[in-house]
Design a protein that fits this description.
Length: 386
C-alpha cells in the first residue's frame, strides 16, 4: 500500500513551489574556481570545481545532463548541466542531528516515461524515536520546476533513539526492483534480528512494498529482507552482470566492500575485521564461520560513503571497477573488479572529506565534498589528465 505524505506526515514534506528565497528563478551558484586544476602528482585526472553546496549528501543526473543534488538540511536542488544555476524542487523537513538529514536521490529506471524521483531522509516522531524513510515524487519541469505528488513508500522498522547509522542508500536492479539500505542505528544486535529491517539490505517493489521471492521470508524474516548482518551501509550499486556491490562503514577499522548475495549473513556484530571503539576485539571473518566475508576491507578506516560501478568512455581502463569516496580517508578510491572478485586498486588523496561519487553522461567522474565541518561542500568534475 502506498501511504501519502499528506496523510502520514503533516508538514513533514513541503514542496517548495516558488517560495521566496528558494531560488526557483535560477540562482547563480558560487564556485571558488571553475578552471580545471592540473592533475596532482600521481593523479591521472584533472579536477574542475563546478559549484558549492551546503553539506551536500547525494546527486544524480537527469537525462538532459542537469543534476539533482540533496543538501542534508533538507533542500532538493535542480542544478544546470554547467553548474551555474540552481532551483529548489522541494524542501523536506528532516531530522538533521548527527548523521541525519536528506540523503540519497535516484531516478526511476523508467524516468523518461513516469518522471519519478526517489529519495531518502531521516525523521523524528512525536515520541522522539528516529528512523530512515524512503519516499518519491513526480518531477514537474517548466519555468518553476518542482517535485509533486510526494509519497512515503517505506519506513525503517523499528524507530529507535540516536542519531547515527541511518544508511538510506537506494539502487534499482536490472529487473526494476528497488534495493534500500537500513543501518543498524548503532544498536548492534538488530543487524541479526530477523524481524526488523535495521542492519539489512532490503528488496522492494518500486511502490515500496516487499518484493515477492525475497529469500528469507519463508523462514520468518521480515518479508523485505534480502541480506542481513550489516552495520552502516552507505553505498549500493549493480554492475553490468547484475552483481550487487555494497560498501559499509566498519567500527574501528574493518570498512568493507561486499558482494551482496541473497539470504546471506554478513556477520555484524558477531564478526568484523575491525574492533570496537573501546578496544574490545571482534572476531575476524574466518572461513567456515557461517558469515559472508568482505571482498575488500580497510584497517585503519577510510569511512567509505558511496560506491559506483564505472562504465564510461573517458577512463576506459577502469570500466567495471568500483569508485568509492572516503570521508575520514579524504580520498577517491578505485577497487579493481574481476567478475565477482575484487582487490584494492588506487587511492588518490583529495584534500577533503568526499561524500559522493557519480558518473556523468560523458563518462567524467563527479564528486561532492562533504562540507560537514561547516564549510561549503564543492562539486568537482574529474576528467583525464593531459
Amino acid at each position: 500500500m502506498i501511504l501519502h505524505a499528506s496523510f502520514l506526515l503533516p508538514a513533514a514534506l513541503l514542496a517548495a513551489c516558488n517560495a521566496p528565497g528558494e531560488g526557483n528563478a535560477g540562482t547563480a551558484i558560487a564556485a571558488q574556481d571553475n578552471a580545471a586544476a592540473p592533475a596532482a602528482a600521481g593523479r591521472p585526472f584533472a579536477v574542475t570545481p563546478v559549484a558549492d553546496f551546503d553539506a551536500p549528501w547525494a546527486m544524480t543526473f537527469l537525462p538532459d545532463g542537469r543534476m539533482l543534488v540533496t543538501e542534508k538540511a533538507g533542500a532538493l536542488l535542480l542544478v544546470s548541466a554547467d553548474g551555474k544555476t540552481r532551483q529548489t524542487l522541494a524542501t523536506v523537513q528532516v531530522m538533521r542531528e548527527g548523521q541525519g538529514g536528506l540523503m540519497d536521490v535516484v531516478l526511476h529506471p523508467k524516468f523518461a516515461q513516469n518522471h519519478l524521483v526517489y529519495f531518502s531522509y531521516s525523521e523524528q516522531r512525536a515520541d522522539g524515536l528516529k528512523g530512515v524513510v524512503l519516499a518519491r515524487g513526480t518531477f514537474a519541469d517548466g519555468a518553476a520546476p518542482k517535485l509533486e505528488n510526494i509519497q512515503t513508500l517505506f519506513r525503517a522498522d523499528p524507530y529507535v533513539e540516536g542519531n547515527g547509522h541511518f544508511s538510506g542508500r537506494i539502487a534499482f536492479a536490472p529487473d526494476g526492483k528497488l534495493f534500500f539500505t537500513n543501518g543498524e542505528r548503532q544498536k548492534f544486535d538488530p543487524a541479526q534480528d530477523p524481524k526488523v529491517t535495521l542492519g539489512k539490505v532490503l528488496r522492494l517493489n518500486d511502490d515500496g512494498t516487499p518484493a515477492a521471492g525475497n529469500p528469507l521470508a519463508a523462514q520468518g524474516f521480515h518479508p523485505a529482507i534480502w541480506s542481513y548482518g550489516h552495520r552502516n551501509l552507505l553505498g549500493v550499486a549493480f554492475d553490468k552482470s547484475g552483481n550487487l556491490w555494497e560498501i559499509e562503514m566498519g567500527p574501528k577499522g574493518g570498512d568493507e566492500v561486499n558482494l551482496i548475495l541473497p539470504g546471506r549473513n554478513y556477520g555484524w556484530p558477531k564478526a568484523s575485521n575491525g574492533s570496537h571503539y573501546d578496544g574490545r576485539d571482534i572476531p575476524d571473518h574466518t572461513a567456515g564461520d557461517g558469515f559472508e566475508a568482505p571482498k575488500v576491507w580497510w584497517n585503519p578506516s577510510i569511512s567509505p560513503a558511496d560506491v559506483i560501478v564505472y562504465s564510461g568512455k573517458l577512463f576506459p581502463q577502469w570500466q567495471g571497477d568500483l569508485f568509492i569516496p572516503a570521508l575520514s580517508g579524504q580520498a577517491l578510491i578505485r577497487v579493481d573488479v574481476d567478475g565477482t572478485d575484487a582487490k584494492k586498486g588506487d587511492q588518490w588523496p583529495m584534500g577533503a572529506r568526499i561524500r559522493e561519487v557519480e558518473q556523468g553522461p560523458d563518462g567524467a567522474l563527479w564528486l561532492l565534498e562533504d562540507g560537514g565541518d561547516g564549510s561549503q561542500g564543492r562539486l568537482l568534475r574529474l576528467t583525464p589528465a593531459g
